[in-house]
Amino acid sequence: MKIVHITDTHFVPQPATLYGLDPRARFDAAIASLQAEHSDADLLVITGDLAHWGEVPAYQALRQRLEAVTIPVVMMVGNHDDRASLRTVFPAVMDDGNGFVQGSRIESGHRLMFLDTKCEGTHAGAYCEKRRAWLADELAKGDEPVLLFMHHPPFLSGISSMDAIGQLDADALWLVLQPHARRIRHIFLGHVHRPISGNWHGISFSLIPGLNHQVPLQLAPHGEDIPGSHEPPAYSVISVGPDSIVVHLKYFLDGSRRFPLDGYEVKGRAYALGFPACEG
């Protein structure tokens, strides 16, 4: 199974820009790259912060651009999104029966679960009792391996300003996931606008850069004022196999030189190991 993961598109109404960048142009470039190189993917998942201020015109701009995508798309919400505005433009977006934008589906023998971690009135995330009940019911439907997609990470990243608006009730979420932990193969996340990987309670995870602006790597305590940067945007290409999950980052704006490494010379010296052949 092949999945493309995009996060934090932060659309704004045209012709506005955001932090000196055009989210629409960056999304267009990402989709052009995706369509040229990864149109064989089974799914595109966008893990929230679709629109920076949750405005209808911003979602309309996103909808217009999604018309160029030829693979199935799953859209999720983040702290910047507005569920009502999103449903105005995308009436068929996921609904768990309680008004939350979450759902699950079976793909290639895996249960893919898309969790709504938005908490009204704050940029932090939360997963209330109703959502936890839905999650428990979905996990109980089968014994397939699980891939989780969320906006907010349920662990500390080490970037203090982002950790201040992380998942507020991670322990309660873990109590629901714990009985099924051996089935959960990976968690895919956004929110922090950085490439980060590791494991949480033994479950591997990956976060990827945002599509517009980024958050610089600043591990020294710096309070709650979030720093921003214009580091390169990226999406990820996920390959899910029976014994492995491989996550590649695609820096779709990168135009740097490409060249063959075989026989390439550095300061006039040819690259050659000259080691004896391996045996066995």
Q: Decide which structural class fits the backbone.
A: alpha/beta
Mean pLDDT: 95
Identify the overall geometry. globular
Secondary-structure element order, N to C: EHEHEHEEHEHHEEEEEEE
CATH-derived topology: Purple Acid Phosphatase, chain A, domain 2
- Rounded to an integer, what's the Rg over CA atoms? 20 Å
CATH homologous superfamily annotation: Metallo-dependent phosphatases
Q: Which residues form runs of ≥5 with pLDDT under 50?
A: none
- What is the tally of beta strands? 13
Number of helices: 6
CATH architecture tag: 4-Layer Sandwich
- At the first level of CATH, the class is Alpha Beta
- What is the makeup of the main sheet? 6 strands, mixed
- Beta content comes to 15-25%
Quick synopsis:
The chain has six helices and 13 strands.
Structure explained in plain terms:
The protein has one domain (2-270): Metallo-dependent phosphatases (Purple Acid Phosphatase, chain A, domain 2), CATH 3.60.21.10. 20% of the residues lie in helices and 21% in strands. It contains six helices and 13 strands. Strand 10 and strand 11 form a beta hairpin. Helix 1 packs parallel to helix 2. The model has no long low-confidence stretch (mean pLDDT 95). This is 3',5'-cyclic AMP phosphodiesterase CpdA. Keywords: Hydrolase, Iron, Metal-binding. InterPro entries: Calcineurin-like_PHP (IPR004843), CNP_phosphodiesterase-III (IPR050884), GpdQ/CpdA-like (IPR026575), Metallo-depent_PP-like (IPR029052). Residues 1-195 form the Calcineurin-like phosphoesterase domain.
